[in-house]
Each structure stands twice: as C-alpha cells, then as structure tokens.
Amino acid sequence: MRIEAVAMHGFPPFADTTHSFQIHEPTNGNDRDDPPEARVVELTGNLIRFPRDEDAPGELHLLTGENGTGKTRLLCLLAAACGNPDSLDARGLCPLGTNQIVVADHSDYRSVWMRTRGKAARTARLDPSDRELLTICREGELRHQSHWNSSLIAAVEEAMAALAIGGVAIAGESAVGRLQSLELAPEQSLSFEVAQHDSHVICQGMANLKIAASLEQSRDKAGNPRATAMLGKLEAAVSTATGREFQIDVTPSPAFELHVIWGRVPMKIGQLPDGLRRIIAWLVSCVTRLDTQFPEHPDPLSLPLIMLVDEPENHLHPAWQRRILPAAQALFPQAQMFVATHSPFVISSANRGWIHVFKADEAGAVTVEKPIPCSEGDTYLDVVEDILGVNEWYDPETERMLDEFYELRDAFQAGSGDYERVEESARRIAARSESLKEMMGREMRQVDNHESKRGQA
Q1: Of 100, 147, 295, 315, which residue is least crowded by CB atoms under 10 Å?
Q2: All domains of the chain, ordered by start, with CATH?
Q3: How many percent of the chain have pLDDT more than 70?
Q4: What is the pLDDT of residue 245?
C-alpha cells in the first residue's frame, strides 16, 4: 500500500485547473507491471506525484515551503485518503456554491475526498477501473452523480496501516496498570489533533510492551520474541535520536509506575525535557498503535504503512533534528513517510527520498515543484540556500548595512561614487564581528586593487 499521486480541484491554497484524472490503459494487460510514473497520464491540473525510490527499503517524502503553502493541509488530505477526513474537514472549508474534489491514487486502489456545495465531506475507496466516476469538469461538477449514492460510498475499509503525528504532540504523564488492553479506532491513529487520551495510550503502551518483554524473557523463549524485539528496536531508536541511552521501566511496588531511564537517570514522563517527550509522542505512540492494531503479527514494525508527520523538529535541538528522521526510518523500515518540515537539519539528514517544494505565486495559489531527490553529503547550509531559498546569512540590520555597502562600492567602481563613503561603510560593518571584519578586509582590498588598476590605466 502506497500513495502514488494526488489531484485536487477546488482545494485552496493549491492552484486549480483540473479537467480530468485518468489511469493509463495497460499495454500488457496489467497496470501493476507499469512504473508509477506511467500510471497517471492525463491531468491538466494540479498533480502532486510521489515517485518511489526502488533501492530504499522504506520511502520518504519531505514537504517543505513557506508558511501558508499548504503542507499541513496536504497531510490532512492524505489522512482523509486513508480513511479519516476529520482533520481535513477542519481546514478544507468549502466556499458557498463551489465543490471540492480530491483524488488520491494508491498503488492498488483509489480514494476520493469530496465536499459538494457546502454539504458534509465524504471519503470513498474505489476500484481504479471505475474511470467514469472520476471525470472532473472545470466547473467542479461531478458527472454521473448517482455513483456517489452507491455502495462504494458506504464505508472506507478500516484494515489499514496508516498513522498521523501532529506538530504539537508531546507525551504527558498518565497512570498505568498491569497489561491493560487498549481500544483504538483506526481514525484515532489518523488524527493530527492532540486528544486527551493520547498520553494514556502512550504510557500504557510502553508499560504493556515492557511487561510483555519481561514475561517473554522469564519464559526463556527460543528465537526472537515479539515484544522483546519491538522494545529493543524502540529503545535503540530513541537512544540514537537523543544521543543518550534510553530504556523503559516499570516498578511493581510500592506502587505500579512507569519510568524511563535516560542516561542512567530514572524519570517519570512528566519530568522529561519537552524534546524527549516530543520524540516519545512520535516513535513510541506509533509503536504502541501498531502493537495494538496488529496483536497477532510477529513483527508489526516491519509492516508496510503510511506515516504522516507534521513538523517533527518542534521542541528539538538541531543535533536531535539531524538524528530523528534516520532513527524513525530504521524503526519503521517499510513506511512510506510524508514529513512536513521547515528544518534544514531534518531535510539534510535524509540520504534517500524526495523533497517536494511548495511555492505560492503573488495571488497565493500554490503549486508543488518537481520532486528533488535527496542526496548524500548535502549540508544544512546547502538546504538553506538551495531548497529553502534563504540567501541571507546575517541578522536583518547587518544585511541592510551590507546592501548599502555593495551599492556604494558598485557606484564607486562605476566612477560615480565616493571612496570615503565606501570605506566608512566597511568600517562600521567590520566593527560588528570578527567574521565581518575579515570579510570587509577582503572587500576593501578588492576595491583598492580595482582603483589601483584604474589609476594605472
């Protein structure tokens, strides 16, 4: 299961010129044998395609761009495509008299999210062969409207491995018991909103995993017991992300309590720094939900799944931002991850995957540029300039002074400026820091050399 492409109509802030969305007719009798790029062959509108990295065990798509370009909204759309439109409903308000239609093309089915003229939104999971249903007109009208009243709309299948993590989620303190079962509806795993029960799910899930692993070890099972393996991978991932050994522990008496041991110091969840609680809210909650959703599977962490993560850098020091994504990829090796981020440290930490840059025009209409492959060896400075488009390296006041200096320098070299003004500007900038002092020294040597050559001529 993977999402290959998304097409949108009437879905601000994304640009909209959609006419139709069609699946390519197979030439060999089997669509599955064609590469993903060949499956979507016609869309005169806003198509976001998610190419696959065939050599990587998992799959990573980094969504980045300025604020207001729809990154989180697209994550909400993908959650709707996987079966829970609640987060999208909160953001995708439909203006009176218009329709909103979004088509997500999965590897083996299609899902459609639709709100018609202000009415309630609906999500449907469809067979890709039903091409007639998916004809979208410029005006936003859906032809063959009767199809939407068919049994295809009745329900979205719930047996789906898909998880969403909101940008403000951090783990909180919660009382735990001995091996308490957790009841989680699939839509709860696909919500970006922080719910009151989330901390209990995380804390009880950690306690359950630790107790189950202890029972497996006491029984001396041969091979690699399920809970022990999951616990070991989870603790290793958090240790890698934080650079300090992390372990989960429970105390049976005098009171049954959950602790974590971080750097050999036992602490309750509420005593941990917010950065670590943020990592726990992501990695631990996902492990808990997979453990609960697939209790009979020998290794739920190896399951193919769709993971939607909003701003994983929140609360994290840059050193942790550089390590969190590789740790998550190692923990969930078969995940197709969609990660919305503003962090050059997160982006530069990815050696494999795709970067999708969201850009808005002067009117605010957003398009997504052709995916850029992640590459090994890129620094965060490369990402800042080449991906995020930030060319300023100093504080705003210094940048203003530099602009003034270059204007004076260029005017002087063109023969219409004053040397003393150039020199005074350079002196004021050089007084701000040692690095600027060296920089202005180089600049003034070039100015002097230029003046010397002009005098000799």
Answers
A1: 295
A2: 3-161+305-387 (3.40.50.300), 162-302 (no CATH), 396-456 (no CATH)
A3: 72
A4: 95
Q: pLDDT per residue over 361-400, tens digit each?
A: 888 888 888 888 888 877 777 777 777 777 778 888 998 9
For residues 133 and 202, give the distance between their C-alpha atoms in angstroms, rounded to a whole number: 41
Task: Identify which has the larger pLDDT, 328 or 133.
Answer: 328
- What's residue 439's pLDDT? 92
CA distance 185 to 32: 31
Query: Look-up: residue for tokens 């795993």?
Result: 189
Q: Is 216 left (phi over 0), alpha (psi -120 to 50) or beta?
A: alpha
Cα 190 from Cα 308, distance rounded (Å): 8
Position 236 confidence tier, pLDDT thresholds 50, 70, 90: very high
Whole-number average pLDDT of the chain: 76
- Per-residue pLDDT, averaged over 214-219, amounts to 82
Closest by CA position to 284, among listed 200, 218, 350, 345: 200
Distance (Å, rounded) from C-alpha 68 to C-alpha 427? 40
- Place 229 in a pLDDT band, splitting at 50, 70 and 90: very high
Of 46 and 245, the one with more pLDDT: 245
Task: Considering only residues 393 and 345, tell me which one the structure prediction assigns the higher pLDDT.
Answer: 345
Q: Which of 181, 244, 249 is nearest to 211 (CA)?
A: 249
Pairing between β-strand 305-310 and β-strand 162-165 as defined by DSSP bridges: parallel
Tokens of 341: 């981020």
What is the C-alpha to C-alpha distance for residues 51 and 37, in angstroms, rounded to an integer? Answer: 7
Residue 98: Cβ-neighbour burial (10 angstroms; 0-12, 13-18, 19+): middle
Whether 100 contacts 94, CB under 8 Å: yes
Tell me how far apart the alpha carbons of residues 93 and 54 are, in angstroms, rounded to a whole number: 37
Residue 62 corresponds to which tokens in the numbers above?
């980094």
**Average pLDDT value for residue range 336-344:** 91
